Amino acid sequence: MKFSNGYWMAKEGYTVLNPVDVRDVHQEDSSLTVYAAARKIQRKGDTLNGAMLTCQLSSPLPDIIRVRWTHHAGKRSQGPAFELFDNPQTPVSIDDSNDYVTMKSGGLSVKASKHSTWGAEFFFEGRRLTGTNSKGAGHITTADKEIYFREQLELGIGEHIYGLGERFTNVVKNGQTVDIWNEDGGTSSEQAYKNIPFYLSSKGYGVFVNHPEHVSFEVGSEVVSKVQFSVPGESVEYFIIGGKTLKDVLNNYTKLTGKPALPPAWSFGLWLTTSFTTDYDEATVNSFIDGMFERDLPLHVFHFDCFWMKEYQWTNFEWDADMFPDPVGMLGRLKDKGLKICVWINSYIGQKSPLFQEGMDKGYLVKTLDDHVWQWDLWQAGMGLVDFTNPEATEWYKGHLRRLIDMGVDCFKTDFGERIPTDVKYHDGSDPLKMHNYYTFLYNKAVFEVLEEKLGKNEAMLFARSATAGGQQFPVHWGGDCSANYDSMAESLRGGLSLGLSGFGFWSHDISGFEKTAPPDIYKRWVAFGLLSSHSRLHGNESYRVPWLFDEEAVDVLRHFTKLKSTLMPYLFASAIQSTEMGIPMMRAMVLDFASDPSTHHLDTQYMLGDNLLVAPIFNDQGTVMYYVPEGRWTDFFSGRVVEGGKWQEETHGYMTLPLLAKPNTLLAIGANEQKPDYDYADGVSLHLFELEDGSVAETSIYDTQANLQLTVKAVRMNELVDISIQGGTKPFTLVLRGINQISSLEGATWTRSAIGVVLTPESGVSKIVVRL
């Protein structure tokens, strides 16, 4: 929200109280409290009839500093609040000098004024990150007597801001005004399904505003040299999060708000859905599935969208008996074909559903302010909303999910969760303004808990549309309702990259677009992008998405990229494990890996898939693409061509390729199974070594589908000698020296030539291979 009239003045009728004059600093063992008058105090009488603002500084975890500003502290805070994994015993050191007091947590420190004009600066290992001054924090009363608290943090020259959730605008948020308020707005506007009050700076720090309610960010769009954020009420709390790298910042942020869970290995395969408003029954479903298998199109998950239930009865958790008279038998038959099953749900109960009366009678539905059940006709006729603040309502909802899992359902698409009313009241008395964004956390958490309970750890996953901070713990999330055109394809990627820079590890999108039907060209280009994403789903609105309905070449393209993804699974699953450990996304903006290269800072039409693969989707019907390659000798995965980095590349591609480059010093694990995503990754794996530079190291780890480490291989090059060490591993594997056709000598393995390079077969039980080039 904007409060100023230009740089010098507040809007007419607005009163702004700033922390002008520091009057006292109170130090405890692990915190500081600063008391600042809202005007300059020159004599004792100036302390009368004036406001004081209080700033509390503490640390919830190493490398994180909490800042809490308060005007009037007497109003009891009403929930909900974000779930934080903090440690009250986090060690801090405090250094007190004449003019400043410094608090340090890990490598992060804050230096605050002790006397005279308020100001604070934040440093990480001596490197200045940002700061605020006496015009930054502010308690504001509007002309309508509304109360807000804001902060303004410095935005440096050349500094870029990222994150703030799944935003479909430019990935660099400078110049934008961003409202943290979940909306069902598609992918073509500034509204977002997943609003996260966290941003990441190219200078190497993050800021998390600890408020589930509406937070307004002005990223250089009110004061052009500041990032401003504001919330309604008498206080604002935020965290400055440090780290050696941007990845470390995300790691620290997700230590505080929760790490992503590891989705099951099968979920990384190809998903096919019934689509939304299409007609289907078991025969239709089988025609799709059998058609895929007959065309040698590997398929791993089948999803039933809304109309698996009768119209007007969503959500009643009951199969439409007219269309599916034998659901248990049908699910068994589908699972016999090797498929996992997903069904659509949401948190609304239509009035025609038998569950509506039960929910109303038992108090399980959100109520209006005068104690009636809240209802409207948008989406479903007369629908109510499940009250997840009521433990009995949550258990009631979970019970229906357990029944579906017992039938054979493996996961749920948790749709909606954004259209949450604010003129209501909740069972536990939660503030409805805070619940608007927070509701999705309770909704997705309840569903995820049932899946973990019934199926076990690392077997639970959702396909969720809405989220707030902490929602990354319940993957996977998809990008919402995109259109079947290139603009929307690019919008979707921008949204996914922004979400990844907000602590979410896994993300998907509707291949070829949800709205309308794509021409064959867009379908084929989007297939390549979709199968080189974290998760891959064919889904749409009014038409089926099986490839032969587009053209026969679409069948070939889908087969090619689906099989490619299956062979990449040893690498991709290791990347997924890394995401759960560090809180970094599998699909990531280039700046996350190459922050020191300013050419990467604005890139939002390409991405890194894991640490080692660069992907540049094609967004036009000419097949042309321009993309940037960082320094080093990169290798085109398909052709083997070496691409010199540090500059832009312009290429033209057919439908079977796109820019897919292996980073130099990469040891890339290629699996032996092209038919499925969940297999024994160590058995017959081929490790491809790309452009190992003198003095450099390339390393890879292979896990099983339960995330147990099976094999670690490390290659070190010194001049013409390559030492390869092997730990673990009892199954046969090979190493391919990509682009190398001759070696001088070899110990610990035998070798042959291939079209892509020398192939090494380790001797049985060997722990070291020495190659002289």
From TrEMBL:
EC number assigned by the record: 3.2.1.177
Group of enzyme by EC: hydrolase
UniProt source species: Paenibacillus alginolyticus
Gene label: yicI
Domain Glycoside hydrolase family 31 N-terminal: 56-218
Domain of life: Bacteria
Annotated keywords: Glycosidase, Hydrolase
Domain Glycosyl hydrolase family 31 C-terminal: 583-667
Domain named Glycoside hydrolase family 31 TIM barrel: residues: 260-573
Family annotation (InterPro entries): Alpha-glycosidase_related, Gal_mutarotase_sf_dom, GH, Glyco_hydro_31_C, Glyco_hydro_31_N_dom, Glyco_hydro_31_TIM, Glyco_hydro_b
Descriptive protein name: Alpha-xylosidase
